[in-house]
């Protein structure tokens, strides 16, 4: 049974067809109720988000529709924000990406240079991989600021 509200992706949200197929497949796999809240960003939106410090650069995967932000919801449609719920959702996205062989990154696992890691290459559980990067950042005296709600297509 599909958990995603307004699915497929709401008509006012533009995302790449490959990313959409991964999100649709993840929706079938997961028990987490979620909805797509953002896809392609206009230049004006990206500039405003950059000025407010919400994003690190004006041009990103979202500029081309290759990024998506989702919102996990309770049965009463109250937004969730915890790492645990998004790790569960990201695990479903990981399985969907593996099944479809599409390179997708999650904002909960990224390197010091900011590059997202390909979920298809997760060496164990996503929780373990997340924790590995958390400690990697800590050991390098760098702040770890994950974006648990974000998924993007990656170049292979």
> How large, in whole angstroms, is the Cα Rg?
15 Å
Share of β-strand residues? 15-25%
Helix/strand-derived category reads alpha+beta
Question: Architecture in CATH?
Answer: 2-Layer Sandwich
What percent of the residues sit in helical stretches (DSSP H or I)?
A: 25-40%
Q: Largest beta sheet, briefly?
A: 5 strands, antiparallel
CATH C-level label = Alpha Beta
Q: Classify the fold: give the CATH topology.
A: Muramoyl-pentapeptide Carboxypeptidase, domain 2
Quote the average pLDDT: 88
The N- to C-terminal Cα distance equals 32 Å
For the biggest β-sheet, the strand order reads 1-2-5-3-4
Figure out the total of helices: 4
Net shape = globular
Q: Give the number of DSSP strands.
A: 5
Number of domains: 1
Q: Spans with pLDDT under 50 lasting ≥5 residues?
A: 1-6
Q: What is the succession of H and E elements?
A: HEHEHEEHE
Quaternary organisation: single chain
Describe the secondary-structure layout.
Elements (H helix, E strand, L loop, with lengths): L16 H13 L3 E6 L4 H9 L15 E7 L9 H18 L3 E7 L5 E3 L7 H14 L10 E4 L3
Antiparallel strand pairs: 1-2, 2-5, 3-4, 3-5
Helix pairs in contact: 1-3
Keywords:
35% helix; alpha+beta; single chain; globular; Muramoyl-pentapeptide Carboxypeptidase, domain 2; 156 residues; disordered N terminus; five-stranded antiparallel β-sheet
Descriptive overview:
This protein is an alpha+beta fold and about 160 residues long. It contains 4 helices and 5 strands, in the order H-E-H-E-H-E-E-H-E. It has helices spanning about 15-30, 45-50, 85-100, 125-140; strands spanning about 35-40, 65-75, 105-110, 115-120, 150-155. Strands 1-2-5-3-4 form a 5-stranded antiparallel sheet. Helix 1 (about 15-30) crosses helix 3 (about 85-100).
């Amino acid at each position: 049974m599909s958990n995603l509200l307004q699915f497929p992706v709401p008509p006012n949200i533009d995302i790449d067809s490959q990313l959409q197929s991964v999100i649709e497949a993840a929706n079938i796999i997961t028990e987490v109720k979620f909805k797509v809240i953002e896809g392609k960003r206009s230049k004006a939106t990206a500039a405003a988000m950059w000025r407010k410090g919400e994003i690190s650069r004006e041009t990103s995967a979202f500029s081309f529709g290759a990024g998506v932000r989702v919102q996990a919801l309770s049965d009463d449609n109250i937004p969730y924000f915890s790492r645990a719920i998004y790790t569960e959702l990201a695990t479903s996205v990981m399985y969907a990406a593996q099944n479809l062989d599409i390179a997708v990154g999650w904002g909960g696992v990224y390197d010091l240079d900011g590059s997202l890691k390909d979920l298809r290459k997760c060496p164990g559980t996503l929780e373990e991989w997340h924790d590995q990067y958390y400690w990697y950042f800590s050991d390098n005296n760098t702040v770890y600021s994950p974006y648990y709600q974000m998924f993007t297509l990656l170049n292979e």
